[in-house]
Write a structure and sequence with these properties.
- With 476 residues, this protein is mainly beta.
- The protein contains three helices and 23 strands.
- It has a 16-stranded antiparallel beta barrel. Strands 1-7-6 form a three-stranded antiparallel beta sheet.
- The longest helix is centred in the N-terminal third of the chain and has 14 residues.
């Protein structure tokens, strides 16, 4: 927890370095190396036309040229709030530095009203409520010459019902912290990075809370979205992208640990396990999580496809040499179509589909059966699909549906004539989002969204809730 004046100082420095119009960027030169494809949660195509070389005479840039990468075609299926592309090679209009050696601020703000309707809960005494939202992301990015770029971003969290702030304090988290080397179509990154191949295609019109609420965040995490400590390399050639990522650290260091299922210390999920025991104010460090992530993708003006395999292992007791490794994998596939039509008004329609299937070993957590694995694996399948209708530039409406179904085994020891068994607990979670966005200016959007969640689990009553969001957001 850090004092609010510290936050104000950082924001003041960011805004002092550049006024609100800093996000208007000059087009990249034709000499620029290809940029990695974008995410939100996914890869976005690169600009179709190269601009004149730096220093040449040219007409004033158009609105889209001033801010490359934010046209509907380029951002189809993605969100600006998860975008690992490097900054342009040529210095943006408002930045500190020269043409190829500069730094510029990052700023994203979201605020509004969230009305939560608890339809059916396990705790029947819980009440629905209305909450005013506030979320801020800030930092810097820039270039150190033509082939080196960096990004450093932090977040003041939204937390549950505004619980992230009290009496001048705030809950902070560290987001992207990456240094990037790029040349000849090849890219190498290290730090806290986002693997663009791990990001599902999404509706651009449901990102009104910057993908920070459970209705938009959780489906991404269950499918294997990977933001975290690591290194990755990629090569781009004529629309093709081949990549490889590596992470090896505590499970809290990467969001991809969210997909791992089973029982870990009292039945909690894997990512919750380090939080169950604090030492000197820090989460438990007895776990180790390692992920290898090869991927391939292709971007065309009419469609995008990508596929990925995340192969991982878990050492759930690094203080012991007798515990077995838990091994698993997640196979992912994504497809997006980009369709233009005219029904009296021009429409840009982007249907998409995502699928991911994960399986991993499960440790036997029953007393007396330490250091043993169950013969039944944990499995989960994530499916999501949706479509966007862009009417005026980036404005429009979108709908997205996601379903996560998992089977988690437990162990029942043999008693009398009854043999040992490994019964399965089946859980199905569904998420529905219907949203609309109107871009009031190039950088400010008004949003409205309806979201619904339902959880079904064996031998447990269903949980159902719905939410209504009305928001404003600023993305510079």
């Amino acid at each position: 927890m850090k004092r609010f004046p510290f936050t104000a100082t950082l924001c003041a420095l960011a805004l002092g370095a550049a006024p609100a119009a800093w996000a208007q960027q000059a087009p990249a030169t034709a000499e620029a190396p290809p940029a990695p494809q974008s995410a939100p949660a996914a890869d976005a195509p690169q600009a179709t036309e190269a601009s004149p070389a730096a220093g040449s005479e040219q007409a004033a840039p158009t609105k889209d040229e001033q801010k490359p990468g934010t046209t509907p075609e380029q951002m189809a299926g993605t969100s600006e709030v998860i975008d690992p592309r490097p900054p342009p090679v040529v210095r943006p209009r408002i930045a500190v530095g020269n043409e190829t050696f500069y730094v510029k601020p990052l700023l994203a703000l979201a605020g509004g009203i969230h009305v939560e309707n608890l339809i059916q809960t396990l705790n029947r005494s819980r009440e629905s409520r209305a909450t005013t939202l506030a979320l801020t992301r800030f930092g810097f990015e820039g270039r150190l010459g033509e082939y080196v770029s960096f990004r450093s971003e932090f977040e003041r969290n939204i937390r549950a019902h505004g619980s992230g702030v009290w009496e001048g304090t705030a809950s902070f988290s560290v987001r992207d912290q990456v240094i990037r080397l790029q040349r000849w179509g090849a890219t190498v990154e290290a730090g806290i990075i986002v693997d663009p191949a791990s990001v599902d295609y999404i509706s651009t019109h449901i990102a009104d809370t910057l993908l920070a609420d459970k209705y938009t965040r959780d489906p991404l995490l269950y499918s294997g979205f990977n933001r975290g400590q690591g290194a990755q390399a990629a090569y781009n050639w004529k629309g093709f992208r081949v990549g490889f990522g590596f992470t090896a650290a505590n499970p809290l260091s990467t969001s991809s640990s969210y997909q791992v299922g089973g029982t870990f210390g009292g039945g909690s999920r894997f990512w919750e396990r380090p939080l169950g025991n604090y030492r000197n104010g820090q989460p438990d460090d007895d776990l180790h999580f390692q992920v290898l992530s090869p991927s391939v993708g292709y971007t065309h003006e009419l469609f995008e496809v990508k596929a990925m395999a995340q192969v991982f292992d878990v050492n759930y007791q690094t203080s012991s040499r007798t515990d077995p490794l838990l091994r698993g994998n997640n196979l992912r596939g994504n497809v997006l179509l980009k369709l233009h039509t005219n029904v009296g008004i021009p429409l840009f329609i982007t249907p998409f589909f995502n699928i991911a299937r994960v399986q991993n070993d499960v440790a036997n957590s029953t007393p007396g059966f330490a250091d043993q694995l169950l013969s039944t694996k944990y499995t989960a399948t994530s499916l999501s699909a949706g479509v966007d209708f862009n009417v005026q530039g980036r404005s429009g409406v979108g709908v997205q549906f996601a379903r996560i179904a998992d089977r988690s085994p437990t162990y029942v020891a043999a008693t009398g004539d009854s043999p040992a068994s490994e019964p399965l607990t089946r859980t199905t979670q569904t998420y529905l989002n219907i949203g609309g966005t109107y871009w009031f200016t190039e950088d400010v959007a008004l949003g409205a969204r309806y979201a619904r969640y339902q959880k079904k689990q064996d031998l447990v009553e269903d949980e159902i809730d719905a939410s209504y969001f009305v928001t404003m957001r600023l993305l510079l």
